[in-house]
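User: Predict Major facilitator transporter's structure from this.
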Amino acid sequence: MLAGALVAALGYGSLHLIDASTPLAALLVPFLLIPTGMGFAVPAMTTAVLASVAPERAGIASAVLNTARQAGGAMGVATFGALAGGGGAAQVVDGLRIETAVSVALLITAALLATRVRPDAHRGASSTRQVVRS
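Assistant:
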């Protein structure tokens, strides 16, 4: 999770530096870093969430995680649309800068929180399992 959050933050940070005259090819780096970071973070988050609950609650935990991810994505798109919509290129860039600054702050916060996840923190859920033999 830590590596994913930092790689995505680097992508959003580099996207923060663009302006209305930035060549399209320059967007390749941030648009590769952001999904790469998410590709590292999401499986790690899923593993951490599923390992922290009892097996019979894995479906609920997975559903809550995916619902939160989808809702966060929808809110992010709506917020960017509200910040950048209705204006010219300068307003789009201004909205993008606000959005990328918020994204970097949230991802750095996520990275800091990821350092607090202990590998042994998830043993409690698995150690309470009962073996049922038929």
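The helical segments are 2-15, 28-51, 58-84, 89-114, 123-127.
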